[in-house]
Amino acid sequence: MTESFSQAWSSTLQALLQRGSGAGADLVEVFLEHTDHLGLLAEQERITSVNPTFARGAGIRVFLNGRDGFVSTNDLSVDGLTRALDQALAMLNLEANGLAGSSSFEGLGVLKDYALEKTSWLQQCPTMRDASSRLLEGTSQLERLGQHLQVRRGSYARDWQEVLVAASDGTFARDIRLHQSTGLSVLAADGDHRSSVGRRYGSTDRPDDLFTWNVETSAAEVCESAGTMLRADYVEAGQMPVVLANRFGGVIFHEACGHLLETTQIERGTTPFAEQVGELIAHPAVTAIDEGLSSGAFGSLSMDDEGMEPQRTVLIKDGVLQRFISDRAGELRTGHQRTGSGRRQSHAFAAASRMRNTYIDAGPHKPNDLIASVERGLYCKSMGGGSVGPTGQFNFSVEEGYLIENGNLTRPVKGATLIGDAKDVMPRISMCADDLDLAAGYCGSVSGSIFVTVGQPHIKVDSITVGGR
Amino acid sequence: MTNNTLDAGKLRNRVQTLATSAGIRQWDLGAACSDDCSVQVDRGEAKQLKAAQRSSITVRVWNSDGLVGITSTTDLTDSGLARALEGAQQASAFGNPDDVPQFSPMASDPLPQLDRPLMPRQGILPLLKDLRAAEAELLSRHPAIQTVPYNGLAESLSTNLYLNSDGAIRTMERTQASLYLYARAEESGRKPRSSGAIRMALGSSDLDIQGCIDEAVERTVSHLAYQPIETGSYRVCFTPEAFLSLIGAFSSMFSARAVLDGVSLSTRESLGQTLAVPFLSLEDDGLHPDHISASPFDGEGTPTQTLPLIESGCLRNFLHSEATARAFGVKPTGHAGLGAKVSVGPDWFVVGTTPGQTSGQELDHTREADTFVLIEDLSALHAGVKATQGSFSLPFDGWLVKGGERISVEAATVAGDIRSLLTSILHLEPTQEVTHRGVAPHVWVEGLSITGEA
């Protein structure tokens, strides 16, 4: 077990911050990290891969006149950290001169320790044997409940991370994060017909999560979807209304709009909404929220990667843009106040404004009201991944879809891709149901891959391009 | 600039000592360390300057029952290595008895000679100067180009090792540099457009910066006058880059690991069977002189080699690790990672016309008079490709070409099945182009579904 971070790091960090501030930096930030990862894969009746990974490192960031230099290293010795700091200073033409008197840094106070109640979490997590048993139970349930299954897989990942953040503005905070995710997936094949379906479940800060996972329910959901989609026809392409199911359907808001409300996008000049705070950018039916507070949700935090406590940020209220998701650099460069959203995959990345638990809020309708309002369209029960480009064009794939004909779900269809433009599609989300639910996911962007939650109730988009055959 | 390097001999002695004291007789490892630096700019200002010193090691151990466990760590101190060995030993209790990797029988064979001299690194401030100049020129080339939101200039020095307890030692040191420029252009009353270009080289001084600027400008500006396209079935021409993206997304067709796992479109019986039109050939050439990231050995120490995958339209070989090669009764091909369950993947595809074969067509995307869609770049392959099913539905950038006139296509997708596509190839143009993904000509395909907004 690696030695924990503690108040004992104070003198080393103070010396570094003093050195950086004395050199003339506007702000110096040190991010230290230990991680302990375990990944397991079960295939059919065997555990086929067990991957423990340990890592440690530091990311040192120096700001001067709105610019920043960032250096990461695996070397946590005093010499290693000093070398990294000096390299970051040199990027901004600064040089450590050892003149403590020229610094505005007033020293670090008492450590703000969010990790105190979490120190035993790693020990409370499932052992390799526990996790193996649960995954094999999963693949066994898939075998019992599914038909025509050629491949059955179960996977588990546990990511434990201890971080310590210190900055020359006095920030000094420690946290322990625990993310666990479990997945089941199958490949069904019958003659030329094939379907591949997977589901992933994730939680934050719940060491016993794997023990409480309802394996049978998850396996049943995967098998039902795989069976339905095995002989599904390809969707007929075109413009049509779509109804997106709750939970992971929220990826549409994440991709279509959420990324464009990060201050990094203002900095790049890639969001069409930069000057539209207070203006109507979505249908009045849409209220959207980003927060880091929901208990156990994959994107929840005690503090962000810059030492700030997360907030509940209302992004859009009744269609009107309220505010952006912001980090330290975002506040500095765009003027949007920090929201506790400075996040990064690891010490190797500088923090950036990133989403946490992001969702469209519940509306007044019942899910069936939305389907009943469509004469001919597509119902997207399960979504795959997606992405957004630098012009706001987004796309995402539909894993499990059904035709809507005369207000009723009819036959399953596959191969659909939804594409569109954020500015065009947000005003077309005309109905929201009352069944808000969240789903765990991973988001890859400028500061690496991070844990997030997407979510929404059932929503109706009046018209969108559905790619297919 | 620091010099973050690994000494193979010393590392081997340290690990051997620690392994002996832990009662471990058989082990191997892969290690890597690197010094990287990169810059990004925003309208003349340095946006972010980054540097990193990274080191990591992945160690495998075989326990007394012959089962394998693995652990990775970034802590290369003695205590870090001891912890990694302990973790691997613990994991070996869950090793898969049905699929036990062994040392590659070729882990000590002679390595191919790669002509990849180490190039001097410039350091971060010269990189910043070059990128600022590149951004300024790009912005000056067309009034509609207002920003270059995604840009970066990077250089690195890295060392990779493979060692095992039988005495195999593989080391490789290389320098590498990359430049990407993705511009955003917008004209009044029109939707913004974005495109860009990438260049790679052994050193930052060798990067074709001017070529990257020219390509980024051309690709961005040429899409300003866009129109929606009607949904329908079209004759399609893929640029080399687009075709390599697509074939790469279905590379599990060629992976013996995927075949054994039942997640490939191919089976053991697919070897020798027709997979594509007879005039198509495909090889994996990790030693190609234009492959900047070439390595002389894979994760198991097996020498890299050139491997024919499709000849005259027939599937000839699979890509192998040690374990999959043993299962198929062949030699490893140099395409393995390092793991308890070893991954297998391609290095560098080269697509071309089978010698002595012809399509019987004379299609040329620069002169063709009949209507076709020219697909320049495919997006969202991670979401739109179903590799286990063979299907794809992908957004693309491209043009509708009518009577020789190119009209940029707004927001459209192309969909199909890779098996049908490979047997529907009409023609491979004679000129092969080198891209950062591999080598290919323009590839013509009949009858693909395009969905547009018209």
Count of folded domains of chain A: 2
Overall spatial form of chain B? globular
Give the averaged pLDDT of chain B, no decimals. Answer: 95
Number of helices of chain B: 9
Q: Count of helices of chain A?
A: 11
Main beta sheet of chain A, described? 7 strands, mixed
In percent terms, what proportion of residues of chain B is strand?
A: 35-45%
| Count of distinct strands of chain A | 23
User: Could you name the ranges of chain B where pLDDT drops below 50 across 5 or more consecutive residues?
Assistant: none
* Average residue-wise pLDDT of chain A: 94
Q: Which two protein chains have the largest interface (Cβ within 8 Å of the partner's Cβ), and how many residues from each?
A: A-B, 77 and 77 residues
Topology pattern of chain B, helix = H, strand = E: HEEEHHEEEHEEHHEEEHEEHEEEEHEEEE
Low-confidence stretches of chain A: none
Rg of chain B, nearest Å: 24 Å
Spatial strand arrangement across the major sheet of chain B? 3-2-1-4-5-6
Describe the overall structure:
The complex is a heterodimer of chains A (469) and B (454). With 469 residues, chain A is α+β, with helices and mostly antiparallel strands. Chain A folds into two domains: 7-230, 2-Layer Sandwich (PmbA/TldD fold); 233-467, no CATH class. Chain A is built from eleven helices and 23 strands. In chain A, strands 1, 2, 3, 4, 5, 6 and 7 form a seven-stranded mixed sheet that branches. A six-stranded mixed sheet of chain A has the order 12-11-10-15-22-21. In chain A, strands 9-16-17-19-23 form a five-stranded mixed barrel. In chain A, a hairpin with a 2-residue loop joins strand 1 (27-43) and strand 2. In chain A, helix 4 (128-145) crosses helix 6 (215-230). The longest helix of chain A is centred in the N-terminal third of the chain and has 18 residues, at 128-145. The radius of gyration of chain A is 24 Å and the shape is globular. The N and C termini of chain A lie far apart (54 Å). The model of chain A has no long low-confidence stretch (mean pLDDT 94). By secondary structure, chain B is of the alpha+beta class. Chain B has two domains: 8-219, PmbA/TldD superfamily (PmbA/TldD fold, 2-Layer Sandwich), CATH 3.30.2290; 226-454, no CATH class. Chain B is 20% helix and 37% strand. Chain B contains nine helices and 21 strands. Chain B has helices at 8-21, 78-92, 124-140, 209-221, 240-249, 256-261, 322-328, 381-384, 418-423; strands spanning 26-42, 45-62, 68-73, 145-164, 169-185, 193-201, 226-228, 232-238, 280-285, 306-311, 314-315, 349-353, 372-378, 385-386, 391-402, 405-410, 412-417, 425-428, 433-434, 438-440, 443-451. In chain B, helix 1 packs across helix 2 and helix 3 (124-140) packs parallel to helix 4 (209-221). The longest helix of chain B has 17 residues, at 124-140. Classes of the chains: A alpha+beta (469), B alpha+beta (454). At the A-B interface, strand 1, strand 2, strand 3, helix 2 and helix 4 of A face strand 2, strand 3, helix 2, strand 4 and helix 8 of B. Strand 3 (67-73) of chain A pairs parallel with strand 2 (45-62) of chain B.
